[in-house]
Amino acid sequence: MAHEASKTAENNSDVSVFIDNIADDGRREDARILLALFEKVTSLPPKMWGGTIIGFGCYHYRYESGREGDSMRCGFSPRKANMVVYLIGGYENPETGAKMDALRTGLGKHKTGKSCLYLGQLSSVDLDILAEMIRTDMAYMDAKYPR
Question: Which fold has domain 10-144?
Fold first, then answer.
């Protein structure tokens, strides 16, 4: 199967301009905090993925069905209702998933999706635990998809 173009592809939009244009002051400040945290933990530059996601790193995937594409290793999106943190890799692996589950118990107020966290205000989250979750996810991704 051919490589499919994703709606959420890496592009050259300016991350700083995107963050500066977030209407809500609190969400904009939280985005700046997460930007610094992800840059520190991943040592990767931020890139826009689609129009609203800030991603760090890239990997190429190929499913058994033949479908393949590129995606960010991790990232976040400052949505109106929640800050969405994408930790793509660790949930498919039982050992990494168990570690992520254990870390989430001390994270603070959040909801979960298949491979993401929904955070309200960052002030209700332990950023040290979030940093460890990002490190855990990156270690899994680096093992499965070497850079």
Answer: Aspartate Aminotransferase, domain 1 (3.90.1150)
